[in-house]
Specification:
Shape: globular
CATH superfamily: NAD(P)-binding Rossmann-like Domain
Helix content: 40-55%
Radius of gyration: 19 Å
InterPro entries: NAD(P)-bd_dom_sf, Sc_DH/Rdtase_CS, SDR_fam
CATH class: Alpha Beta
CATH topology: Rossmann fold
Pfam family, one: adh_short_C2
Distance between the termini: 40 Å
Strand order of the largest sheet: 3-2-1-4-7-8-9
GO molecular function: oxidoreductase activity
Number of helices: 9
Protein name: SDR family NAD(P)-dependent oxidoreductase
Keywords: Oxidoreductase
Number of strands: 9
Length: 264
């Protein structure tokens, strides 16, 4: 799919980290980007910087997502590229030792459900609402392509660590969405893929550099090659290539410097 000047895109979580880099890269390619995020100050500022639009969107709320797409389409027309980076989750082991009671304590089902909503359900929500809009748009090329949706999974989908029972399994679920959804949408001309980033130098990770420089050095050294955390721009580069290359469909990409996560 040719990324033409003025084509519309939506990036969730576009106020920071991987989403911010993706929004910037798409804007540099000539697209009009709408950022979905709950951080209004950072989202508005980044949208202004890249010549785009900001919509305050809570990905866990159906009507918030619908309203976000309405605002994006009113500003730039039907999005042809959607990148879903936003998420929310909780952390904990299936069973953890409770010092107060001297017994094992189970991770609450409510905590698991919160993560499932914030990772897996929200991925379906964003992707399906975007696909519905794309389906009613005219094809872009002779292949009949109408758009490209890219979800963000994680290497934890395959290498889930201790304490990541929610995160790892729900990110695996995101990967599980890809092929059946791509097949559901194949006759409409909408592609669906996912990216599994490894350890990236997002603001959350960069904070460790000053707080715990020893741990920071260990994290960098743990990556086979190159021996550093990934740059958000490298994630964004792959996002753009997935959008451009019409033969990439139903695929899950690891982007991790060949790292394989240990149990902890």
């Amino acid at each position: 799919m040719e990324l033409t000047h003025g084509m519309a895109a939506v990036v969730t979580g576009g106020a920071s980290g991987l989403g911010r880099a993706s929004a910037e890269a798409l804007a540099q390619a000539g697209l009009k980007v709408t950022i979905f995020d709950i951080d209004e100050e950072a989202g508005e500022a980044h949208a202004k910087a890249i010549g785009g639009t900001f919509a305050r969107v809570d990905i866990t709320q159906e009507q918030s997502v619908v309203a976000g797409f309405d605002k994006a389409r009113a500003a730039h027309g039907q999005e042809r590229v959607t990148v879903h980076c936003a998420m929310t989750s909780r952390r904990g082991k299936t069973l953890g030792w409770d010092k107060e009671s001297g017994r094992y304590k189970r991770l609450a089902t409510e905590d698991y459900a919160f993560g499932a909503e914030g990772i897996l359900v929200s991925s379906y929500r964003v992707a399906s609402h975007s696909a519905l809009g794309m389906a009613n748009a005219e094809p872009l090329n002779e292949d009949g392509e109408r758009g490209c949706i890219t979800l963000t999974a994680s290497v934890a989908a395959q290498d889930g660590q201790i304490g990541q029972v929610i995160y790892g399994s729900c990110k695996a679920g995101v990967n599980g969405l890809v092929l059946p959804m791509a097949r559901d949408l194949m006759d409409i001309g909408i592609r669906v893929n996912s990216v599994m980033p490894g350890i990236f130098a997002t603001p959350l990770m960069l904070g460790m550099k000053d707080r715990n420089p020893q741990m920071w050095d260990q994290l960098n050294a743990s990556v086979p090659f190159p021996k550093r955390l990934g740059h958000p721009e490298e994630f964004a580069s792959l996002i753009c290539e997935i959008a451009r290359n019409s033969y990439i469909n139903g695929h899950q990409f690891r982007l991790d410097g060949a790292i394989r996560m240990p149990p902890k």
